[in-house]
Design a protein that fits this description.
The structure holds two protein chains of two kinds. In chain A, 47% of the residues lie in helices and 8% in strands. By secondary structure, chain A is mostly helical. In chain A, a hairpin with a 2-residue loop joins strand 1 and strand 2. In chain A, helix 4 packs across helix 5 (159-168). In chain B, 62% of the residues lie in helices and 3% in strands. The longest helix of chain B is centred in the last third of the chain and has 33 residues, at 551-583. By secondary structure, chain B is mostly helical. Chain B contains 19 helices and six strands. Classes of the chains: A mainly alpha, B mainly alpha.
Chain lengths: 197, 587
Amino acid sequence: MRRDILTSLIAAVVFTILLGLVYPLLITGVSQVAFPGNANGQKIEVNGKLVGSKLIGQSFTSNPRYFQSRPSATEGGEYNAAASAFSNRGPNGRATAQADTENINKYLALNRPYDSALMVARIPVDAVNTSASNLDPEISQANAWIQAHRVAAKRGLSLNVVDRLISKHTSGRGLGFSGERGVNVLELNLALDGGSR
Amino acid sequence: MTVAGWLTIVLFAAILTALALPLGRYMARVFTGERVFLSPILAGPERFLYRVLRVDPKREQDWRSYAKSLLIFSLAGWLLLYLILRTQDAFFVPHGLNPLGYHSAPWDVTFNTVSSFVTNTNWQYYSGETTMSYLSQMIGLTVQNWLSAGTGIVVAVALVRGIVGRSIGCFWRDLVRTILYVLAPISILAALVLVSQGVIQNFTTSLTAHTLTGLTQSIAMGPVASQEAIKLLGTNGGGFFNVNSAHPFENPTAFTNLFEMLLVLIVPAALVFMFGRMTGNRRQGYAIYATMMVMFLGAAAVAYVAEAHGSPAQHAAGLHTHVIAGSTGGNMEGKEQRLGIAGSALFDVVTTVTSCGAVNSAIESFTGIGGAVPMANLSASEVIFGGVGTGLYSMLLYVLLAVFIGGLMVGRTPEWLGKKLEAREIKLAGLGILVTPLAALFCTAMATASHAGRASISALGKGPQGFSETFYAYLSQANNNGSAFAGYTGFVQPNAGNVGAHGVTFADLLGGLGMLFARYAPILFALAVAGALAGKRVTPAGLGTMRTDNPTFVVLLIGVIVFVGALTFFPAMLLGPIVQGLTGHLY
């Protein structure tokens, strides 16, 4: 009994040092040397100023010249990357249906004037439903193709040019089969700014 | 549904099996004390650890002594973790490891969190990036990710030894070998793979970005990859961030999603093959593996179909949820675009058949039937692969029960792998199987019947969802899983950093005690079974011996698992997710 207590106490301390300090610091050291960009969050800087991370979505709602991210319900405003949170909207919730309806109406009001064929049945689900992290950096291709009409008109670009940019910033599936294709909204918007500025 | 979606499920199962076979062979060698290819590197550190811990590596323990070492070590870990979390902002903590100056969470939330991490549950009432300092995440939570995983694995190894031989081993030797030879090499490799794909690993305070539309965005940072790797490999599941593996910094791409799912299942799957090898008849392992795989694929298929169909709320709003060009449709509420419907449904099944409980999507937002799948997985007491170690030892208890029932049906004394099964083992196995459901249902009843339990429900007054939240909370904690209908809360935190925060004492304590009971009681029963079997002489199989390595036995075993789970939990599931799934009614 006494021997077990002694060994347990030593083991708790020794393993805390090995697994709680040595291991994370080892991984940090190797990562910072081998993959500094990834290890530090794939920062995107423009003219030396940090504009965001490739992996973290951001809000573009105030400017319709930009592609819009998915709806986000983080506390303290959309895309609060200091406090990720689920929306926890139930599948049979009246409130969920209401939130969906609101997002549908917003989407229609924003895009219908530039794409007269757009109707509720054609709106892709990711444009209406909040993501899991509420920080989703991507939208579906269908969502991007619809928004392309608006962005092209607002920026005086041809639809072809915008669609080509969308393809350029669409990620493939993992190993060719895992996950879904998505369009990185921040990178796409940066490319638009770079090209039309 | 799409072809790529189905391919994800099928190819995942194939890759998993291909990787688990060699790992199972390797682990069998590790735990029978043979040399492996890592021995030249690790034998030195192993001897060093025995010397520092004052352990005699040649000592053999009986089951009581083994259990005593395990319990005392777990208690020491519990106390140390409580101390670390409660002194988060003490003077001796370097500023760089608590850069945002977070205070400690209240005592009741900490009780729940500590019990949760020590029992391999990783139920989280707190939200990582607004509650925990980097130091707490590293030397507190990450360390228990390793140790609770190791503790689970050694119990399974001890039980296997008891089944096949005369001795069950030595707790300290098994723990050291598990960590050094199994967990450490895979975890270090996996952490680096994750960083190479975009998981972050740094000690930066947090980023302040100035977005394209002129807003300021603050982005949480931290040493994520090191914790992420062992969180998955040890089937722990407690996320660095609040949204766990849905966070782009924890799970940045569709490839990492696949890789993370493999990390979760690799050890539980390999343990089954290890069992087959250690019995001297690999087919014993294949039979159990087949049982698990059939149930796993069934669960994944149901979840995928349900989620691809979409939810009543979406349809009420007028959304069309079928596949169109450029979008797969389905229930994308609470799911990430890059992971997709299939990647989310499969991840959910992977982490609820095991005790992992990591999530890459909001389970609360799953459709009724989609949400019933993780509940059903939990109701099977996590024997479909299950947690590292816990899965195998729980499954072996079910095997005992199935052999016993089979013996009754043919009217002979049941025997398994040459050992006669008698009243003592069957009683112990029965108790070992029943304590977890008992804890789950008792806690659910307490929480739904009492006024104090209602404080935790976010969907209160909104139909079956509120019951589902409660039921899932205690089902998950009792099974040491840790995934959640995340609306259920035990922690009120108005500000990041815990200033002015308080816990929901009832939910914190009930859940914490439930986790501790449902972790250690089955461990004791499993070790007691190991002890009872280790004392028996092996007699060669006769003509009347029921075989446990053929398809008939697989069917019998599936039947036993399904019947025990369904008889225990079906009424509760009817009240929650099934009502929602079948009626499509809005509340």
